[in-house]
Design brief:
Two copies of one chain form a homodimer. Chain A is of the alpha+beta class. Chain A has a domain at about 5-120: Jelly Rolls, CATH 2.60.120. The first copy, chain A, has helices at about 5-15, 20-30, 85, 110-120, 120-145, 150-160, 165, 170-175, 180-190; strands at about 30-35, 40, 50-55, 60-65, 70-75, 80, 95-100, 105-110. In chain A, helix 4 crosses helix 5. The termini of chain A are far apart. Chains A and B meet through helix 5 of A and helix 5 of B. Chain A binds a DNA duplex (30 and 30 nucleotides) through helix 9. Chains A, B: InterPro entries: cNMP-bd_dom_sf, RmlC-like_jellyroll. Chains A, B: This is cAMP-binding protein.
Chain lengths: ~190, ~190
DNA sequence: AGTCTTTTTTAACATTTGTAAAAGGAATCT
DNA sequence: AGATTCCTTTTACAAATGTTAAAAAAGACT
């Protein structure tokens, strides 16, 4: 990992302060990854062994459902992305990670990270807090999916991520919202 | 906590072995709670400060959406229940926990538990793993909600929890599935 | 500029689910 | 047993979303 990647530790510091030795240990299991637009960062079918921090660019997790490409999530600059249903179980993931722009990531080896947990309780604590926060987001998303109309979810999405529309094809936004492109077009036509 | 409550530590042992001192420390922050059928174990509007283990009986988390009672989740014997969106944030929960049968719980004080994390890294690790598994379940549930029809979700639910139908009013099952009672009735009428 | 491909919108029709009201059943209480 | 309340189903109609196909718009490539 190169020296100007402090954005990662800035991100971590929201959750847990780390002493220099712990930061050093994490740095050693990180690597910089550059991926052009519309390429797979991680293909479907492999066990997730890397947690990515998005330094620049934008990506999505996706999978195929009845032959259709479904976007599960988007990840913007300064956020982490991983396929936790594989990361925490060791089961090969049915999901892939694909860039939507030319992007730069910091990849953190998860087996190496989990080994650091024994040596540095503060690192275990850091990632515990990170995933607890992600868990809370997921719980809240269920409520949003189940009890808001597609139109409400669309409005919420663009309110929370205004540049999504500029940066992501509508077809991915539609599948993320759980509706068809046609249905999204109808919603958009109202305004 | 009384002496025959080893079901809790049996449950924990799936995730993480604990040495006797750690078990002892957890025991000290637990208490037995008996609640009759159809009562609130935890009311809506309070910050979640207790994680419950269901020793006997059955309960649900619920909240009100536009005046309607919505069931977010069910918890059977030998499982944990908490309102994580409050537990991990300190924000008062919009959700309550209600019994559906006469039930017995072990309540674990979460502030006391979080204090134990400093003293016993193995306890922090135990709950890290517990909530990681719960997080994975939640991620998988999103896929189920978004890309299966209500009919598929109903069939999955009764396949995975066959006694749910015997133990829970259909109105709660309907709201859990994200549909109306009428719609659930229509689905059931097909068989 | 022109061609090719991909993305987005529009249209017509089918299906699913919601809403409101009523009726039928089941459980509870005295 | 009778009354009351709650739960579940049924019916009729409305609204939202899906499906399929075609047209329009935008982007990519020579």
């Amino acid at each position: 990992m190169n020296s100007e990647s402090n954005s990662l530790f800035d991100y971590f510091s929201q959750f847990q302060k780390l002493n220099p030795k712990a930061e050093e240990a994490i740095s050693e299991i990180c690597s910089d990854v550059h991926v052009p637009k519309n390429r797979d960062l991680q293909p479907i079918g492999h066990t997730c062994r890397t947690i990515y921090f998005v330094k620049k660019g934008l990506c999505r997790t996706y999978y195929y459902k009845d032959g259709l490409d479904i976007t599960e999530s988007f990840a913007f600059e300064n956020s982490l992305i991983a396929r936790v249903e594989s990361l925490f179980t060791g089961i090969p993931s049915k999901k892939g990670i694909q860039t939507l722009e030319n992007s730069e990531f910091i990849g953190i080896s998860s087996p190496a990270l989990f080994d650091l947990y024994d040596q540095f309780p503060e690192i275990e604590r850091l990632f515990r807090k990170i995933f607890e926060a992600a868990y809370v987001d997921t719980v809240n998303r269920i409520e949003s999916i189940q009890f808001h109309t597609a139109e409400e979810r669309y409005k919420d999405l663009i309110r929370n991520s205004p540049d999504l529309l500029q940066r992501v094809p509508l077809k991915h936004i539609a599948s993320y919202l759980g509706i068809t492109q046609v249905s999204l077009s109808r919603i958009r036509a109202k305004y």
